[in-house]
Amino acid sequence: MILNSIHSKIEIFNSINYQNTDERLKTFFLSFIIIIYNLDQTYFTMSKFEGKNILITGGATGIGKEMAKIALEKGAANLILWDIDETKLDETKTEFKNKYPNVFSIVVDLSDLQQIIAASEKTKQLIGSIDILINNAGILIGKYFHEHTHADIHKGMVINANAYMHVVREFLPEMLTRNSGHICNVASAAGMLGNPRMSIYCASKSAVIGWSDSLRLEMKKLNNNIKITVITPNYINTGMIPGVKSLIPIIDKEKAAQKIIWGIERNRTFVRFPEIVYILPFLKGILPIPWFDFLMGKIFGVYKTMNTFSGKQE
Hints:
Strand content: 5-15%
Distance between the termini: 53 Å
CATH superfamily of the largest domain: NAD(P)-binding Rossmann-like Domain
Low-confidence stretches: 1-6, 33-42
Helix content: 40-55%
Oligomer: single chain
């Protein structure tokens, strides 16, 4: 379908009698835009939430809770939330169940592999197979690297990166059998550049980005219909970043959730916000390191954002 659409537009382009080269070039660029638009439309074949079983980790608060709310509004068949905070999890489930009876929850410590395996089995017993899996749970320790204990390093990497992989490993085989499913991994713009007092967080989110892209390519090589979406936002105004100040706007959690769901529905490979995050790989690729550091540190003030961080240093 895509190739036929492109071929038909090229034929139209070649069949026109042009008065001059400028006219031909203008028509070429117009045709190019139309082709890209049509490719985008085919790329936008939707991953629908209606009638689907959804799992969200870190779903009791913040963007996890906001995404859960949107998924329910879009008609999810069943929603299951994982979180370590039993009190908040119960509150969120009770709040949702007032309107939606199809909400379930499981208390899980994602730093414990055995709990992940047990929660996965319980999830399958409660609602069956998972159609859309959103890995969202995470922690920010907020120390200089030399101030981390070995336990800090282990915890940050396990929860922010390893757990994502283990959760997907539990549900991917069934998705492969069905030849359908969507995996969304919430990473961060911090996975695309370094930042003082975020070394472990940056490392873990960089790992998520690299693993997710490899997983996407594996699904493509296996000719499988499982979609992978990676989220790389700037700071989001959840309880994880108290005191952080940024020249680049801090994103409202409701808007962030809307953007993530929008990206999942449209099968986007990457969802980056605000828009400036899209040019980070380009800038990092073309600028000498001192220039890039000057731009990020002095112009945008990225390297100072954690100076006023007042959150719990776990």
